[in-house]
Every structure is written in C-alpha cells, then in structure tokens.
Specification:
Blueprint lengths: L3 H15 L5 E4 L5 H10 L5 E5 L4 H6 L4 E3 L8 H8 L4 E4 L15 E3 L5 H10 L3 H15 L4 H16 L4
Parallel strand pairs: 1-2, 3-4, 4-5
Length: about 170
C-alpha cells in the first residue's frame, strides 16, 4: 500500500548514476521475501536500509534529505506533514490526501497514480542537487506551518459552529 515496490525500482534506476552517493532508508516494515529477492536481483542491497518500525521518526527525518511516500492510497498521511515540518521536501503520490497541500515543484513533488518508477526516479534525481533540495525544503517548512494542530482545531470548531447555527 505504501508504494515500496515502485520506490525500490526507482532506487535501482538512480543507483545506475549515483551508486554509493545515496541511501534509501525504509522505516516501518521489514522486506518480505519476494521484495528482498527483487532488491538482490537489482543489485541494490547496499543502497537500502530497512530500519523497521520506530516510535521516533524524527530521528530519521533529522538524518535524511528527502521524504518519499509513493503510496497507492492514503486519506491524508501525517508523516508527509511531519517530514515537511523537519525541512524535508516530500515526494508523494496523487492518491495521498496530503498531496492536496503541495504545490508541484515548489514545496514537494506529486507523482502519478499508480506510482511510476521512472517518474519517481526523475523526481528523486531532481532533489539530488543540494540547492534545489534546500530551496524546496524551506518551502516545505513554510507550507507545513499552515497545518498545525491549533489551526486544524480552529477550523474544525468553525465548521461545527456553522453546522450548529444551521449555516450549511
């Protein structure tokens, strides 16, 4: 569901040009047998680290340059907002509700659905350049500041009050 297969395929494409210059850190699950075989066949075992589940994702955000979640479906993934707040430019799919807050190429990238490994690799490659990555990371932080818990609470209360007053 989270798009690990197209992400691995994209990493294999990047590895052709950037071998030894990037790592893919996967936080959450561990590779299932067929995925592990695919990674080995692509020859990118050295480029991918499966960190397993974590209760402290901020440690990973602090040690990464880009956040990639090519999900097949997410109503609105909180991790995209967390990564943006940490200055990471996100890459996610059009079927992630969080894509609705991104401005393509300004504060993140939105890839097609289903996630295409070629397009995903192109977006990842665009962020291999430090100036582009830093600029987009700063914009991601700015965008994330509009989506705080406080703002969300206030907007929800506005909706509830309007509904209670019959203003719908």
């Amino acid at each position: 569901k989270k798009g690990i297969v197209p992400l691995v395929e994209a990493a294999a494409r990047l590895n052709r040009s950037y071998a030894g210059r990037f790592k893919l850190i996967v936080v959450g699950g561990l590779p299932y047998p067929s995925l592990a075989r695919r990674i080995a066949k692509l020859g990118i075992s050295e480029a991918i680290i499966f960190a397993g589940p974590s209760r402290e994702p901020e440690d990973y955000y602090a040690n990464c340059d880009v956040f990639v979640l090519p999900t097949y479906y997410d109503a609105c993934s909180l991790v995209v907002f967390e990564a943006m707040a940490c200055g990471l430019p996100p890459i996610t799919s059009a079927f992630n509700g969080a894509a609705g807050v991104l401005t393509q190429g300004k504060d993140g990238y939105i890839v097609s659905h289903p996630p295409d490994p070629i397009e995903l690799a192109q977006r990842m490659e665009a962020l291999m350049a430090e100036p582009a990555r830093q600029t987009m990371g700063r914009e991601a932080v700015r965008t994330s500041r509009r989506y705080t818990i406080e703002n969300n609470h206030r907007q929800m209360m506005d909706v509830f009050e309007a509904a209670a007053a019959g203003n719908f």
